[in-house]
Amino acid sequence: MYPLIKPILFKFDPENVHYFVTRNLKRFNRFPGGTALSKAIWDVTDPKLEREVFGLKFRNPVGLAAGFDKNAEMMGEMANLGFGFVEIGTVTPLPQPGNDKPRMFRLPADSALVNRMGFNNFGVDIAAERIAAFRRDPKNANKGLIIGGNIGKNKVTPNEDAVSDYIKCFDRLFDVVDYFVVNVSSPNTPGLRALQEKGPLMEILNTLQQRNNKNGVSRPILLKIAPDLTDSQLDDIVDIVQQTGIAGLIATNTTISRENLSSPSKLKEETGGLSGKPLTKRSTEVIAYLHKKSNGSFPIIGVGGIHSAEDAIEKLNAGASLVQLYTGFIYEGPGLIGRINKKLLNRD
Question: What confidence score (pLDDT) does residue 348 get?
Answer without folding.
Answer: 65
